[in-house]
Amino acid sequence: MTETLREKEEFSRIEAENMRKLQEEAAILARKVEQHNELMSEKDRTAQILHDEINTLQLELGQIEERNAILVKDNAKLLQRWLDAKQEEVNKMNEVNAFYQDMRSKQDRVATESATPIGASGSGTSDQTNGKPTRLSGNDQLNGTVPTAKTTDGTTSSGENSLSLTPNG
């Protein structure tokens, strides 16, 4: 019986030792579980902060994209207005050039008609005396001479002489 008692005590001591080891392991594992829970809580808080930041940034991005779309439209409008203004300038310049060409052709036609004597044949574009082309000045002067003033019936007025002026007048 002593031997059985000793075996039982030995078994009991081994079991107590195992129990102590298991309790220590359980305490260690409980601390690890608590640390993991704290770590998961911290990760959840960090994830929530990141989600909030993502939402804020997405909102800002949406506003920036909206502003960008508005600016693109404004830019297109400004560009179109600028192009329209430039096209208007071009049209005005074309009108001025057409007017200038028209006036120039009228001036050339008047010069041609006034240089051709009545009843003379030929083009009438050159002076009969020196063969140079006839041109009128801005004052309707033919080759630097002062034209005689004519009345409404076509006769020359008396008292005016035909003078030959120098280029400086």
Quaternary structure state of the chains depicted: single chain
How many DSSP H or I helices?
A: 1
Task: Give Rg in angstroms.
Answer: 56 Å
Tell me, briefly, the overall form. rod-shaped
Sheet having the most strands: none
The overall average pLDDT, rounded, is 81
> Termini separation (Å)?
161 Å
Helix content: 55-70%
Low-confidence stretches: 122-132, 140-147, 158-162
Concise description?
With 169 residues, the protein is mainly alpha-helical.
Question: What would the keywords be for this entry?
Answer:
169 residues, mainly alpha
Protein described:
The protein is 67% helix and 0% strand. The radius of gyration is 56 Å and the shape is rod-shaped. The chain contains one helix and no strands. It is an all-alpha fold and 169 residues long.
Task: Provide the fold topology.
Blueprint: H1 2-115
